[in-house]
Specification:
The protein is α+β, with helices and mostly antiparallel strands. It has a single domain, classed as Double Stranded RNA Binding Domain. The protein is built from 1 helix and 3 strands; from the N terminus they run βββα. It has a 3-stranded antiparallel sheet. The mean pLDDT is 91.
Length: 92
């Protein structure tokens, strides 16, 4: 359970998955107030591998969330640079 400091905020995440026999794509859409940010991921099945749709879904969603994560970090850097008035580099 998170400890509430001053207020509770809710960010909504929607994950959409599209697939066929050999390929799965996922989109992770994050809504923060009136802002929206999207990450995208894809998984392709090797023809020699058995058909396991769940594995493709997991990989595609993980890649979409990773893409979204990088976009969030980039947005934070841009925000910091705006108020700092200089380039910044985040560690970790």
């Amino acid at each position: 359970m998170l400890k509430v400091i001053d207020e509770n905020k809710v960010w909504n995440l929607e994950i959409s998955i599209g697939e066929n026999a050999d390929e799965t794509e996922a989109q992770a859409k994050l809504r923060i107030d009136e802002h929206e940010m999207t990450g995208w991921g894809r998984a392709r099945r090797n023809p020699a591998d058995p058909e396991r749709p769940r594995v493709g879904e997991e990989l595609a969603v993980a890649r979409a969330l990773s893409d979204l994560s990088h976009r969030l970090v980039d947005a934070a850097v841009a925000d910091i640079e705006t108020f700092a008035g200089r380039p910044v580099h985040l560690q970790g």
